[in-house]
Amino acid sequence: MWWPENPYEELKPGAMPLGRYSAFRSSDLDEAREFVGSIFCPHRLEVSIPRKSADVRMNHAPAAGVSLNYLQYGAPVNIVPGELGHFFLVQVQLKGGTMVRCGSRTAEIGPAHASVLSPTEYTDMHWTEDAAELIVRLERDAVERQLSALLGQHLPEPIVFDLAMSCETGPAGSWWRAVRFLAAELELSENVLSSPLAVKQFEQTLICSLLYSQPHNYTEALKHGLSTAAPRHVKRVEEYIHAHAQDPITIEDLTEVAGVSARTLFAGFKRFRGTSPMKYLRDVRLKRVRQDLERAGDNETVTDIAMRWGFGQLGRFAVEYKKEFGESPSETLRRRLLV
Q1: Do residues 195 and 247 both lie within one domain?
Q2: Strands (DSSP E) found in the chain
Q3: 330 vs 324, higher pLDDT
Q4: Which of 29, 58, 285, 321 has CA atoms 20 to 30 A from the CA of 196?
Q5: Phi then psi for 63, rounded to 5 degrees?
Q6: Does 32 score more than 60 pLDDT?
């Protein structure tokens, strides 16, 4: 068994998780990029030290809507997948370290910790030469369906988890022990996961455990149960804002969509969202601007993108953007163009 006696200590030399599921080994970085991209998504991959040879190994164990993967590169590498799109990744650090940037957050991840990558957040990473990870892939639609069922409501915006997670203690420790159990079972020729129903139930357990153990933008609503579910007029306005954020929108438009008075609408947003309807609109537009800046074409400018999302006062926009994301819009665009 490859698991160390202490589940949080680093792997011993030669230890290889998911050994029954060896999928790929090569020193060719182009081959590695193509194969790993077929399991996850297309991405940019480069060795950060010129002429440094790689030793890429990947073990891949698919199980219905979840997969467990062991990955090492054997060289210091930079990885830029951008937005993952259709899945979440929880990358548990077994050896070495990674520097991860996901959206506006950055984290340095070492053994006994993990990074949780959300599909709508632009991501890039640096792995050290000795880095090795156990990576859990969870399908986005499965996670969103389960959270929606737990809340009893439609999700007005994508789920975004906090980036860094400790696997040592607390609820996240319980999630990690469940992953270890799954990986250990997969190592056996006969295991409890031979039944598709058992696999599905275990997938739901992993998702539910992650939703309750790792903070995200719906944690407060989940913590307080249905009592914090917003009334229908608030949710209608949220859905309208997400669908029409690029259009001119006034408070009169929103009260018409809500079917209530402006006073009632403001009170609903204040109580259930902690903000006003127009500030909620502004925040959605700021996130859309950031998304567009992170995937901008060579000829697109900050002004073009800001104007597209309704920000006519560029000086005020720049101040609000930096306050929200910790960097200026031009810095976000410059970083994108360097990729």
Answers
A1: no
A2: 22-26, 44-47, 56-63, 66-72, 77-82, 87-95, 98-102, 105-109, 113-117, 123-127, 132-139, 164-166
A3: 330
A4: 58
A5: -150, 90
A6: yes
Note whether residue 10 is domain-resident.
no
Residue 163, pLDDT > 90, answer yes
Q: How far does the chain reach from its first CA to its final CA, in angstroms? A: 40
CATH of the domain at 78: 2.60.120.10
- DSSP strand E in 105-186: where? 105-109, 113-117, 123-127, 132-139, 164-166
Same domain, yes or no, for 70 and 176? yes
Query: Is residue 9 situated within a structural domain?
Result: no
CB–CB of 119/140 below 8 Å? yes
- What CATH number is attached to the domain comprising 303? 1.10.10.60
Q: Which two tokens stand for residue 309?
A: 């999302």
For 121, 178, 210, the CA distances from 182, given in Å and listed in that order, are: 27, 6, 15
Q: Domain check: are 163 and 212 in the same one?
A: yes
pLDDT per position as a tens digit, 210-246: 999 999 999 988 876 544 567 899 999 999 999 999 9
Domain-ending residue, one of 221, 254, 273: 221
138 and 285 housed in the same domain: no
pLDDT score at 324: 81
Confidence of residue 337 (pLDDT cuts 50, 70, 90): low
- From CA 154, how far away is CA 271, in angstroms rounded? 18
Structure tokens at 339: 């990729």
Domain range for residue 308?
230-338
Report the predicted TM-score, pTM, of the whole model to 2 decimal places. 0.67
Return the bridge partners of 98, or none.
Answer: 109, 127
**How many Å separate Cα 92 from the centre of its chain?**
14
* Beta-carbon contacts of residue 153 (< 8 Å; ≥ 6 apart): 229, 230, 235
AA letter at 228: T
Q: What is the pLDDT of residue 230?
A: 79
244 and 320 housed in the same domain: yes
